[in-house]
Amino acid sequence: MLLWVAGFIILLVKLTIVLGVVLFLAGYLVWVERKFLARLQIRLGPNRAGPYGLLQPLADIVKMITKEDTVPDGADRAFFLLAPAVVASTAILMFSVVPFGNDITLLGQRVPLVVTDLNIGLLFVLALSSLSVYGVALGGWASNSKYGLLGGIRGAAQMISYELSLGLSLIPIVMMAHSFSMVEIVEAQKSYPFILFQPVAFLIFVVSAMAESKRIPFDLPEAENELVAGYHTEYSGMRFGLFFLGEYVHIMVFGGILAVLFLGGWRGPFLPPVVWLLIKIFLVALFMIWVRGTLPRLRYDQLMDLGWKVLIPLALINILVTGAVGLIVH
Amino acid sequence: MESVWEAVTALLSGLWTVFIHLFRKPITEQYPEYKRPLPVRARGRIILTCDPDGEERCVSCFLCSAVCPVNCISMEGAERGDGRRYAAWFRINFARCILCGFCEEACPTSAIQLTTDYEFAKTDILSFVYEKEDLLVNHQGKDKDYNFYKYAGVTTNYGDKGEHVGERKPVDVKSNMP
Predict the structure, then answer these.
(1) Which of A123, A227, A231, A294 has the fewest CB atoms inside 10 Å of its own CB, making it the most exposed?
(2) What is the ipTM metric for this complex?
(3) Which positions in chain A touch B22 (Cβ < 8 Å)?
């Protein structure tokens, strides 16, 4: 009984810390993105709220919360109010399977440094990223606006297409690690990170994960110059903020999963494991911002061509080659 | 295969170009701290100037009011005892004014002039209605020594008909009689 209570308290503490850190970092990722993107475009970026604009995320949150929460006429109220929560919560939940360190011993108990070590962690991530399609599609459909509807439809089509290549690109990783568990995948990269063996899978995963998180060059669901703001056109206040938060948490989750699957997770010399994981997440986020500063948006047919005619065949070939090499080696 | 190579090199060169820009100095001008020097003929807040003698230049001719494309200038004309005309009241609604400068070009006496002051934003729209005492200044603005009544052919304290600068004596029409 006592052990059970202690385990429960440890779980709660871990949950609180992870949630707090993820939300805090997501808030400051907005600042990093605005600052870094500005410097890529030889601008200064936010610099008025606090030194170097460091209080900008706080100011944004205060603004979002104090704004009026409007529901448009004719909107499907229940779905409209629910959709942002789906996007934000699925993005945050994905972080629960990302390990951020080796097991530590606390008061004679083994504490794994991961919120839950699911034995199907990878499938859990894929399932949740499919679920977040519902937030986009329902939010766009429920707002009773043509822009929202178009954005939602595009979002659904894009995310379903890229879900396939995302999943297929990860199968070679599972084949090499012999496990779906994120902890064991990190364990399997003890000597070498998988990016050295699976560069093709890495590239496919990066492209499709960018499409999954709906960022430039794959931001068709919210294409500003054709659809106003796409699926979140009609949202205001903190509900819009939740979509926004979901996007930035998604970037961090993407960074974390990329680090776990290809870059050796929390492994690295000298620094503590958590710091290594954060550095890897930060570098991936910087890369995404860099890409955002460089590439224009894809056209819809180009997007579908890239997904179905390039990435999926490439991922299938990659699976075959990995399987063949595995057979030969054993 | 050719096109794949082309796409990859294009992508990498784009990324590289953007990356170099990271090390360039931002070109942003920080407005309230740094104010960009304005051209001398920049058009801003409107003023009513004075003669070199210190008298109001405005003769209430209504030309500025007539030329104004947004009808933001209104006034009422009056005449002083010595023959000079002036505006009994003069009003510019800066909430409507588009700072086009037509009034300055139309003004025959160089009374109405535009300054380079553009920082007079306010939160209360009614406070944008400027009366004559708000507009009047006690200097000559851009036109330092023009004095309308020294040239105008009307009788004022600057002289009778025929006594102004470059003006001939009036012809006695009776002398033309056969």
Answers:
(1) A123
(2) 0.75
(3) 39-40
Closest among A59, A4, A68 to A28, alpha carbons compared: A59
Residue keyed to tokens 């789906």: A86
Chain B environment of A40 (Cβ under 8 Å): 18-19, 21-22
Cα B130 versus chain centre, distance: 14
Give the range of the structural domain holding residue A123, as residue numbers without chain letter: 68-329
In a domain, A275, yes or no: yes
| Count: domains in chain A | 1
Question: Three-class SS of residue B57?
Answer: coil
- Is A3 part of a structural domain of the chain? no
Chain A: closest CA distance from residue B20 (Å): 8
pTM of the model: 0.77
Q: What angle (nearest 5°) sits at the alpha carbon of residue B17, between those of residues A291 and A262? A: 40
Determine contact: B22 vs chain A, CB below 8 A.
yes
Give the one of A41, A44, A291 whose C-beta lies nearest to B21's C-beta.
A41
Rounded CA separation A180/B108 (Å): 87
What are the C-alpha distances in Å from A249 to residues A84, A166, A242, A277?
A: 13, 18, 10, 15
Query: Chain A residue closest to B14 (CA)?
Result: A294
- pLDDT, tens only, A260-294: 888 877 777 777 778 888 888 889 889 988 998 88
Hey, of A34, A36, A40, which one would you mutate to test binding to chain B, going by the most B CBs within 10 A of its CB?
A40
Of B18, B27, B28, the CB nearest to A293: B18
CA angle centred on A281, ends A18 and A104, rounded to 5°: 45
Point out which residues pair with A111 in neighbouring strands: A104
- The answer to whether position A55 is within a domain reads no
Decide if A18 is inside a domain.
no
